[in-house]
Amino acid sequence: MNTRHKTLEQCVVESLETYFRDLGGSEPDRIHAMVMQAVEKPLLATVMRHADGNQSLAARWLDINRNTLRKKLAEHKLL
């Protein structure tokens, strides 16, 4: 059985294309902030789950400082 999986990049492109189509010609606003907000929280939650809540391990996987991770977890109310 040959199952084709979309890459994360393809999913983002498709979502953005849908967003622009749904705007119906209206000008978009704050796209970067919108995408970062939509992606960062589930990214952090998923990585923390796979790291069994170990912030040092999750920070290493994310290639960010543990203090930065703690700040982001707090911002997203994931602590």
Structure explained in plain terms:
- The protein is mostly helical and 79 residues long.
- The chain has a domain at 30-79: Homeodomain-like (Arc Repressor Mutant, subunit A, Orthogonal Bundle), CATH 1.10.10.60.
- It contains 4 helices and no strands.
- The N and C termini lie far apart (41 Å).
Write the layout of secondary structure elements.
Elements: H1 8-23, H2 31-50, H3 55-62, H4 66-75
Helix pairs in contact: 2-3, 3-4
* SSE-based structural type: mainly alpha
What's the total count of β strands?
0
Shape: globular
| The first-level CATH class name of the domain at 30-79 | Mainly Alpha
* Share of residues in strands: under 5%
CATH superfamily membership of the domain at 30-79:
Homeodomain-like
Q: Give the mean pLDDT.
A: 94
In quaternary terms, these chains amount to single chain
How far do the termini sit from each other? 41 Å
Q: Strand-and-helix sequence, N→C?
A: HHHH
The unreliable regions are: none
Mind describing the biggest β-sheet? none
Q: Helical proportion?
A: 55-70%
Can you tell me the CATH topology of the domain at 30-79? Answer: Arc Repressor Mutant, subunit A
Over all CA atoms, what is the radius of gyration?
16 Å
Helix count from the secondary structure assignment? 4
CATH architecture of the domain at 30-79: Orthogonal Bundle
